[in-house]
Each structure stands twice: as C-alpha cells, then as structure tokens.
Design brief:
heterodimer; A: mainly alpha; B: 6-stranded mixed sheet; 11 strands
Chain lengths: 259, 223
C-alpha cells in the first residue's frame, strides 16, 4: 500500500539531489572562470570555436527546415481560419507569441540538446573512460577550463544564435504562407512588427541564455559524472538528453507562469 | 639541503592493503613493480594527488599536495611530468597538438616559441613524421612517445611514468627510459624518474637505480 508513495518519494529525493549536484557543478564552473590564465583562454577559445561550428553552424540547415515548415503550417492555417472571422491582424500576435517567443526557443533548444547534448555527454564520458581527464589534471589543466567552460560558452552562443536564425526564417516562412493566402508582404510585416514588443525580445533573449546554459551544463555534468566504466558512456548520453529535454520544458513552463 | 622530489610515507594501497614508504631522490630512477591486484597502479595518482590514499602521506618536492586547494594543486602539478597508463592522449587532437597542449595552456610562450619547442620535442622522441596523426591512427609506440614528449613539455625535475613499457619492444622501452632520464649529469640522471607498472623489461633493469616489488602485501627492494 505504501510502496507507491515510497517509490514516488524516492524519485522526488533523487530529483532534488540531482538538481543540487547540478547546481553545485554550475557554481564550480563559474568559480573556475577567474582562474583561467591568459594562455588558457586562448586554448579554451579555440575549443569554443570548434564547438560553435559543430553546435550552431552545422545545425542551421536542420533549423531552417524546422522553422520553415512549422511557421508555414501555422500561418497558412491561421490565415485561413482567422480570415473567416475577419481577424487576420491576430496573425502578427500569433507569429510573435507562439512562434518567435515560445516555439522558436523551445524547438531550437530541443534540437541542440538532441544533437549536440548527446555528442557532448558521449565525448566527455569517453574522455573520462580513456583517462584523458586525469591526464589533463596531471598536467595541471583543469577539465572545467578545457572541457566545460568552452562547451558552456559555445552552447549559449549557439542556442542564442540559432534562435535568431529560427525566428527570422519562421517570420519569412510566415510571409510566404500569408502571401499564398492573399495577404501582401507589406501588410504581413506591418502586422508582425506592430505585434512585437520589447518584452518579447528580452524574453526570447532570456530564453536563449537559460536554454543555452541548460544545453551546455547538463551534458557536461552527466558526461563527467560517470565512474569510468565503458558501459556508463551510453547511459550518460541518454540521461543527459532526457534531463536536458525535461529541464527545457520545465523552464519553458516557468517562463510562462512567472514572466 | 635538497628536497626529495617524491616521498611516500606509510601510504596504504587499495586492493592489497600494502603499506608503502619509499623515496625518489634527485637524479635517480626508481621503479615499483607489482601485479594488478597489488594496487601498484594507484601510486602515480597518489603522487599527483589525483586521488587520495585511505591512509598515509605523499610529499611532492616536500609539499603534501593532497592538502592543497585544487587550484594550487593544479599549478603544482606543472612541476612534474606525468605519463598516465594508457597514454591519456586527447583523441580529438593530433599528436603534435597533444604535445603542445600543456605549453599552450600553462605557459606564456608565444605560438612561435611553442612551435619551435614542439619541433625539438617531436624530434627528440622521434615522432616528427607522425605528428599530424590522431592518436587513433598512430601505433602504440608512437602514442607512448607522444605522451612522453607531452610529459616533458616543461622540462620537469621529476617524471612519473605509469605502465610506460606495456606492449613496447625492449629497444623502444630502453630508448624511452633514456629520454625520460634526460641523459647523464655528474650526480646521475638529469631528472628523477618514478616508474610504476607490472614489469620493467629485464634488459633495462640495470638503468633503474632502485627497484621495488609489490607482492604478498609487502614492498620489498629488488636486488
């Protein structure tokens, strides 16, 4: 009778412990920043650029396809339905709130988490199994400096940049959809721009930052947390992606509730 | 008075529970050999305070670095060259980038100076031809030579080698040990070398000044 309650309690306790450990890892990472030497910054910057190449630039084609299809479907349907009600002006608000502010950051973060989060967790877990992390520490190089900070920075830059790409492509795809339903380009862009507020911009930017931190930190945390057995690598990778996706959804919900 | 490069004081090894007390003096090559279950593989990690022993103390140049904050311990480790078991090379870097990594990260040398030094290091361990390979494409011997060059990047006074000869020919092992020792000075080898592993090839044993063996829960000197 009490078994389900105990099981639920166990899950909650594990979740709380996980949040605590992740928060401590994040704080440790931030505290490592001032200790990064000038020479170390050069190396870390190179790692960051490589990571941005993989995380952001190589993901652009996928994001363009997702943004185009999503926006085209939503706006073409909305134009038709709202047109019947004579409320086509609402397309602008729909575009800004649903796509630019909510789905753009959410889908971008999910894409990066699925694509690069797996890669980061797998790479770091493999590095640990191969003894590379101990070798780094043995050389006097902090793995937080060499592995974690560049990946965190790259994830923030990448998610932020990809959200901008997603939103721009989505707005353009919305224009195509609206045009096919008979709305002129000038009218469409007028509606969209009038609907865009400063609050939308900073909320989208804040999501870029928070989701970037999530996508950068959680895979690093899970990749480095393994005990060093090869069988732990796929587990770390899977846990990292699931945890990233869940955290992104939870944070997205918190944004809606509190902001 | 000179400071001992490395000293283990009543350190308890995992697996076997063996109590280890030994010193690595300046200019001397010291080896500890033992089977895997003897816990010998823990000694390099203890020496660098990468892990802490359950009991006992380890002094590196007179300093118990296990007691230092992690940042200070990281800086202290740059005084020591370390070749980890299985080489520990970063798989996404070329062999030459692996050798240059500690210099790029831990020194204020310009890129030009680093490249100059790199050429000398690569030539010294004879991997200049393979410098552009990634570790996965290199042979065991090339990887080991690379790891040794990386360990020597700062020309340390003490070199810690974990399982350095595993899978190498006797000739390659002898050559690596000579490079590690850094040639002869009036007092012996130019640097202190601490070698751990399951075995040291018999033909190069005469080049080791002090040979310890871990067996049956005891540390004994090989004569």
């Amino acid at each position: 009778m009490t078994a389900p309650v105990a099981a639920l309690g166990g899950e909650v306790a594990r979740a709380v412990a996980w949040v605590g450990a992740l928060a401590r890892f994040f704080v440790e990472t931030l505290r490592a920043v001032p200790w990064l030497t000038r020479a170390g910054r050069r190396v870390a910057a190179q790692v960051l650029l490589r990571q941005v190449w993989f995380t952001a630039l190589q993901a652009i084609p996928l994001l363009v396809v997702l943004a185009s299809i999503l926006s085209f479907l939503v706006i073409s349907q909305a134009t038709r339905e709202l047109g019947r009600l004579g409320a086509t002006e609402l397309i602008g608000r729909l575009m800004v709130v649903v796509i630019v502010r909510e789905l753009g950051p959410l889908l971008t973060a999910l894409t990066v988490a699925g694509r690069s989060g797996t890669a980061i967790a797998t790479e770091l877990a493999t590095n640990k199994v191969m003894g590379e992390l101990n070798a780094l520490r043995g050389m006097g190089i902090d793995p937080l400096h060499y592995h974690v900070l560049p990946r965190l920075g790259a994830a923030i830059i990448s998610v932020f940049g990809l959200i901008v790409v997603f939103d721009l492509v989505a707005i353009f795809a919305g224009h195509v959809a609206a045009s096919s339903a008979g709305m002129t380009g000038g009218r469409y862009y007028d509606i969209v721009l009038q609907s865009l507020t400063i609050r939308d911009v900073w909320l989208t930017a804040a999501k870029g930052l928070i989701f970037g931190i999530i996508v950068g930190m959680i895979p690093c945390f899970h990749g480095l947390a393994i005990r060093g057995r090869p069988t732990d690598v796929p587990i770390a990778s899977s846990q990292a992606v699931v945890a990233s996706i869940l955290t992104i959804f939870v944070c997205s919900g918190l944004f809606v509730v509190f902001l | 008075m000179t400071t001992l490069p490395l000293r283990f004081a009543d350190v308890i090894l995992p697996k076997s529970g063996t109590r280890v007390s030994l010193e690595v003096p300046e200019h001397r090559t010291v080896s500890v050999q033992g089977a895997e279950e003897s816990g010998v593989d823990a000694l390099p990690s203890y020496a660098l305070a990468l892990t802490r022993p359950s009991a006992g103390q380890v002094f590196l140049f007179g300093e118990e670095i296990a007691m230092l904050p992690e940042r200070a311990a990281l800086a202290f480790r740059r005084r020591v060259g370390y070749l980890p078991a299985g080489d520990g090379l970063l798989q996404n870097l070329t062999l030459s980038s692996n050798v240059a990594l500690p210099l790029r990260f831990g020194s204020d040398l310009s890129e030009r100076e680093i490249r100059g030094r790199l050429q000398i290091m690569l030539a010294m361990v004879r991997i200049a031809d393979a410098a552009s390979l990634r570790p996965a494409d290199a042979t065991d011997e090339q990887r080991r030579r690379t790891a040794l060059a990386r360990a020597l990047a700062f020309d340390p006074q003490l070199l810690i080698l974990a399982d350095p000869f595993d899978g190498l020919t006797v000739r390659a092992a002898a050559e690596l040990l000579e490079i590690a020792r850094g040639g002869e000075s009036g007092a012996g080898a130019r640097r202190a070398v601490f070698v751990t592993g399951q075995s040291v090839p018999a033909r190069i044993e005469p080049r080791v000044d002090l040979r310890y063996r871990l067996a049956n829960g005891e540390l004994t000197i090989d004569t």
